[in-house]
Amino acid sequence: MSNVYHDYFYDKNGFDNLDGGYFPLKHPDVAEKPLAIPAVLKPDQVDGDDVYYTITAQEGSSQLFQGVPTKTWGYNTDLLGETVVLETGKTYHVTLKNELSEVTTFHWHGLNIVGPFDDGGPHAPVYPHGERKITFTVDQPSATIWLHPHPCPETARQVWNGLATPVVITDKYEQSLHLPSEYGVDDIPVVLQDRSYYDNQLDYKKSYDVDGTLGEFPLINGTLKPVFEVTKPVMRLRLLNGSNRREWRLHFSDNHPFTQIGSDGGLLPEAVELDHLMLTCAERADVLVDFSDYKPGDEITLQTDDFSFLKFKIGSFEASHINLPSPLAKLEELTPDSDETSFHTVMSGMDDEVRLDGKLFDMQRIDTKQQINTTKIWEVTNTNDMEGGMIHPFHVHGCQFQLISRNGKDVYPNEHGWKDTIGVNPNETVKIKIKFTKLGVFMYHCHILEHEDTGMMAQIEIFDPDHPMTYKLLSMDDMMHEKL
Ligand SMILES: [Cu+2]
């Protein structure tokens, strides 16, 4: 094995476990259960390269504890959702239905899709018993992205209640690599969340923290104390930090190394060997874990800091290894049309003083513009130095971008691929190259959901000088209240 990184890379002084309101995870008093694997969403219809899906946000209940079931929300199911599979080159016709008793939106986090309506940010409300139809053609490489609600200021509570689901994009190149691909067997999503309960129920208001809500117990793919039976020598884990605020500092109980093959927007140009990996909110990492050296009956657990939350029980299998090519993937390298920074955005503050460029979000204000299909350099700064500061995860809708530098230095070894969310350390400026290939108005914001809901968010319009567009931008009040 080549170089194995033993580092979380991020600035320790910014870790969430130094925050005033931080508390570590606890073990719930429940029996172990097999890790839930979300079902794969079935198409309503397939017509050549046209695929039809229906996704319904709905209320449900989940037997998390003994006694009274927990009221939870999900997409087409009781909690979380069904995994949406998309194939590059195909066209998807998606009916988005709302069976909740309040307004929601369906945001495609990580998808290159037109904004602001198809993208599913706050300008795309779906009211109770209403629906919205969108159509898009997937023109980006294989990746693990996700779907979650985005009706700010209610995003954090709706995610807390259970709405979030993995979206898996596949393409021909990835299929040619023969990576583990038996869904639920050696290719699994791992949605990392944390929740607290009161008499078995979620209570967002009681759990709320303005600086990002933490939960007492881990909830992994909606399972409280999960165990996964390993029946293949190499597993592909699609790790997704779906938490409102918690950072996951991942490592195995025995510091077993693993191979990161993908980041937010797809395969890395080169696989990276690690034994520690930190994910800030909304980030994804696609990793291969080789269990060949373990014996049947062995158990290893995935931990965050020193807390074990996901047990892998080794079954029997024939040892075999995966040979990855080098390069792993040929990335379209973005070339900025100027070396000058075209846009500088600043995240600042903590608690209710969080701001983006000194301002709070206004749905009817366009904060910046960029021409479609041009590659620009942005600088993203976190000036936060209150009490040592905190890491803000910065997310941009409707595109994937590439990193240039962190405070003028090299980016982390696993950041050479496509990204849509980056943790920015206190007193750090991250330089990125960014190109939008879809028109529209898009959000960029901190992905600590409570910061986003407070207003640490702004909007960019992507324009085509040859085809000027006008957008009727809703106010927050319009979004929240259906005009009959
Ligand atoms: Cu933040």
From TrEMBL:
Annotated keywords:
Metal-binding, Oxidoreductase
What SUPFAM superfamilies does the annotation carry? Cupredoxins
UniProt-recorded Gene Ontology molecular function terms? copper ion binding; oxidoreductase activity
One Pfam family, please name it. Cu-oxidase_3
Answer whether the UniProt record assigns the keyword Transcription regulation to this protein. Answer: no
Signal sequence bounds: none
Family annotation (InterPro entries): Cu-oxidase-like_N, Cu-oxidase_C, Cu-oxidase_fam, Cu_oxidase_CS, Cu_oxidase_Cu_BS, Cupredoxin
Keyword Electron transport belongs to the record: no
The segment(s) forming the Plastocyanin-like domain are 61-172, 338-461
Concerning its family, UniProt says: Belongs to the multicopper oxidase family.
Q: What is the protein named? A: Bilirubin oxidase
Species in which this protein is naturally found = Pediococcus argentinicus
Q: What is the organism lineage in this UniProt record?
A: Bacteria, Bacillati, Bacillota, Bacilli, Lactobacillales
